[in-house]
# Entry
Amino acid sequence: MSFPFTINLNQYNGPLDLLYHLVKKDELDILHIPIATVLEQYLDHIAVLEWIDVNAAGDFLGLASTLVEIKSFEMLPGEEVIETELEDPRKELVEQLLAYKRFSDSATDLERRGRLWQQRYPRLANDLPPRPKNLAEEPIREVELWDLVSAFGRIMRESSPQSMHQVVYDDTPIAVHMKRIYNRLKAEERLSFRQLFEPGEHKSKLIGLFLAGLELVRHEHAEIRQDSLFGEIELRYRQGGKSLDFVNLKTEPAGTENGVST
# Structure
């Protein structure tokens, strides 16, 4: 079965959608609708819809009758229109089209804003439990985490062995490194960050020492200080920390140094 006329529209939401599409496609002034042009196209579409869905075609017939009334009104002589004071049927149609245009423009704007907001990522709410201590009293209050990572990276580069070396597995528990550092801090009260590491040590042991130092800070047995900008980072002994059982402390080994470094 073939249809006398086909149309490719984005949506069929009602008669105003189709009429507005025809007006917009021909770039016609919505306040001065050339009824002959629009009516011919509109009736062609109704003929197609009759083959598709009789109920849907009935919805469009209401607007078609309005267009016929408008065309008949335009064919009346001007003097007779003035004498009989007929109400211009275009007025209601134009008002409906203008209202549809406002809603259509608003829908387009909302769609544009929706696409814009999809590209934004709001900051998530802080769902962490409240800290029991004031942040100003925390042990790492004067050193940023990035400072620690940068300092550790420099030590790793300076302590790197030859370009070719054996893969080493360090099975030393973090608790063992913690105890050694803790005993040194208790005796010397402070250690520079570099003093925690010995030149030539393999990377897995360096990582273990680094994590052990952070664990001591977390358990409040040490604090990290940097007295001046770009100055030496120090690990200082702190009294009154949480009780530590280095024997039964649950920690993991630093792990394996993967691959061959160059």
